[in-house]
Design a protein that fits this description.
Chain A: It holds the Pfam family ATP-synt_DE. The structure holds 2 protein chains of 2 kinds. Chain A is of the alpha+beta class. Chain A contains 2 helices and 8 strands. Chain A has helices at 89-105, 108-133, and strands at 3-8, 13-19, 21-26, 29-33, 40-53, 56-70, 73-78, 81-83. In chain A, helix 1 (89-105) packs antiparallel against helix 2 (108-133). Chain B is 56% helix and 11% strand. Chain B has helices at residues 2-14, 43-92, 118-132, 147-156, 175-188, 242-318; strands spanning 102-108, 139-145, 161-165, 193-199, 215-221, 235-236. The longest helix of chain B is centred in the C-terminal third of the chain and has 77 residues, at 242-318. The radius of gyration of chain B is 29 Å and the shape is elongated. Classes of the chains: A alpha+beta, B alpha/beta. The A-B interface holds A 6, 8-13, 26-28, 31, 38-43, 65-66, 68-70, 75, 77, 79-80 and B 77, 80-81, 83-84, 87-88, 91, 174-175, 178-179, 231, 233-240, 245, 248-249, 252, 256, 259-260.
Chain lengths: 134, 319
Amino acid sequence: MTLNLCVLTPNRIVWDSEVKEIILSTNSGQIGVLPNHAPIATAVDIGILRIRLNDQWLTMALMGGFARIGNNKITILVNDAEKSSDIDPEEAQQTLEIAEANLTKAEGKRQLIEANLSLRRARTRVEAINMLAQ
Amino acid sequence: MAMAALRREGRRFATPLLSSPVRSSVISHSQEELPNGVRSISTQIVRNRMKSVKNIQKITKAMKMVAASKLRAVQTRTENSRGLWQPFTALLGDAPSVDVKKSVIVTISSDKGLCGGINSTSVKISRILHKLSSGPEKETKYVILGEKAKAQLIRDSKQDISLSITELQKNPLNYTQVSVLADDILKNVEFDALKIVFNNVPKLLLQWTFAPTCYAIMERESEAGGKLGELDSYEIEGAETKGEVLQNLAEFQFSCILFNGVLENACSEQGARMSAMDSSSRNAGDMLDRLTLTYNRTRQASITTELIEIISGASALEG
């Protein structure tokens, strides 16, 4: 029994195939989903999605959205998603540093919130690559 | 529109010839274009007309090719964005005809013209929707995206327009821009139900000549009167209450559908422009054929007239 996973962003379909297990990061922690999970609808935080296909783990960085799990079919709708194999380590590191610099420079509530969000996004991307290296 | 200008131009050339004496013209066909009493149209006029028609044909052909390439660029993105809103409809349900106090119609149109009738039809449907959902206690407002719909709706429904946004396509369309737009709409406009009107692209786009005809109307309700529907069968994970999740989900759905709507409209705009320019080029070609015939006839008639004059002059001298 396998799960059918669909990861969609407004720009393209990032993933659409069968997997064995996924670990999803929601705003109340990480949840693992195995086949025959109870139906669940949840919000997805900016974080890592881990996919297991046949004893091999694959990581993806998700930028927030929603997930629906039911009947062995998982649909994840996110603002943006990147497979860790598509992320360039140096570029991600640079983006992280720029985001950190922006956070210290940010003034005003709105800029602070935006800087925080971009920092989290950059951090997620770096983590995705690091996790792959493990 | 361009052809009418040509016709006017032709008449302007013809009127100075009115002063010549009346002579039965050998050319009977050309009389439909000129006032009576003209001796003959000179080949110069016809040649000028042919030149301008040919130039217009070149321009419309070029516009068609530009529209074709733009269409190809937008089409892949549109197809990719289609898959996003279908799970939403499956989950939250679609409620096209719900009775609410305040409804908002989001009309998506193009900024540039020469794209066939798509903008007029969008506006027509928006007006119909407006009439349907207006009543003694109900009010309907417009949110307009695009210059063309704004020009048409501002004439008679000025007080009903709450927000209008133009020049969407200055930068290539992307989701962040549209989500900011959706955010703006949600914050500034009060509503209970929302309808989005845009031009949809028919599913089988195999040939380049097509006419976009379907109009998709998506509706979504706010959290208060929200349809829970199938959501009930799912447990909500996470610390938020069901109401909050529903509202977040609905907002996300709105921005996704808006994004898809804007892309589809851009697609159909380019496609309609292609077919409009194509028929324009073909009309110009037809006109050119007719003008060529007229030109040849004029030329031969003038040669015949000259011959007759020479021969009659010669015979007068002899006799």
